[in-house]
Write a structure and sequence with these properties.
Length: 323
């Protein structure tokens, strides 16, 4: 059974280590080869795969074919010999709740992003000027850059506790996005991701050619997992989970199951003695019932039924009550 990586959004690491990778490369190929469209914005909730998408796009444009063996893009006309410089800016790395910390981190983030594209950062110039000049230099070499901006809204979102700080952060970011306004012809591809859509961050007012695909049906399944993908990539994991959680969630006559008693201890009759070892007491074992962690966990993950007006309510379920 393949390992599911829960702490990495690096496409190269996931592929090299043999972790589960849900193949979305056919979608990314469609994006990268769309006729008449090359600048995109995509909003999705956190932990939805945006950063992994950015990392995958970076590897695609850098021509790292060896990482894509066995994936859908290998059945397309993608030209692996054509490699592009990639400016990958992760705005989440410079986000902060106070402005001074943000102002110190922004040049560091920009310097790192430009170094990845082979451009030297000029410490005498502000980040936005360095960014604009980098686009010019790379395009002048004959290969227009690919620009990937992840979590573009994170610096403002982190500072929202203080409106004045958030406004200063916004004012510092706007010129960076404004650098792309008159340079669209020098950019091969642009993808900007975020959780929300801040209309005053310049990207929507200055980049008239930026296409918001957040609600386009054609890209609805590009991130996240469909039911078919769950069955294809996670069937073994779900079966293993079912075998454990299925037994835990099936008490008999109001008492915890044999699996729970085996894990937590007890007298074999589903009733736990009052005097328990400290470790079992912390685990939530109490006389006559299973409390504590397991009880709260089953409540937390219990599906909720919230009928809309006019919907039929399942038999035995009071109106507007959870399952």
């Amino acid at each position: 059974m393949q390992i599911i990586s829960v702490d990495s959004n690096d496409f190269g690491e996931i592929r090299r280590e043999g972790y589960v990778y849900v193949d979305k490369t056919a979608w990314f190929h469609r994006l990268a080869t769309a006729e008449g469209r090359k600048m995109f914005f995509l909003a999705r909730p956190r932990r939805f795969g945006k950063s992994l998408m950015i990392s995958t796009l970076e590897a695609m444009f850098q021509g790292k074919r060896e990482l894509f063996e066995g994936l859908a893009i290998m059945n397309t006309d993608w030209d692996w010999k054509k490699k592009y410089p990639v400016i990958h800016i992760n705005m989440g790395m410079c986000a902060a709740e106070d402005y001074d910390t943000f102002a110190q981190g922004l040049p560091v983030c920009m310097k790192s992003a430009l170094a990845g594209a082979g451009v030297k950062y000029d410490d005498k110039l502000p980040p936005y000027i360095n960014f604009g000049l980098a686009i010019d230099k790379l395009a002048a070499k004959g290969t227009p850059p690919v620009i990937l901006i992840d979590e573009y809204d994170d610096p403002v979102a982190k500072a929202l506790k203080n409106v004045e700080v958030a406004e200063r952060v916004r004012s510092s970011l706007a010129p960076i996005y404004g650098q792309m306004k008159d340079r669209s012809g020098k950019i091969r591809f642009l993808m900007i991701t975020g959780v929300s859509k801040f209309t005053k961050l310049s990207i929507f007012s200055t980049l008239s050619s930026l296409v918001d695909i957040s609600f386009e049906d054609a890209y609805a399944s590009m991130l996240g997992y469909t039911e078919d993908e769950l069955d294809r990539y996670f069937s073994e994991h779900m079966e293993a989970h079912r075998k454990v959680m299925g037994s835990l969630d099936q008490p008999y006559d109001g008492q915890p199951s044999a699996a729970v008693r085996a894990l937590l201890g007890g007298d074999g009759q589903g009733v736990f003695p009052d005097e328990l070892p400290e470790t079992r007491r912390r685990a939530g074992c109490r006389s006559g019932r299973l409390g504590g962690r397991h009880e709260s966990r089953t409540r937390r993950f219990r599906p909720q039924f919230n009928p809309r007006e006019g919907d039929a309510v399942p038999d035995g379920l009071p109106d507007n009550q959870g399952l």
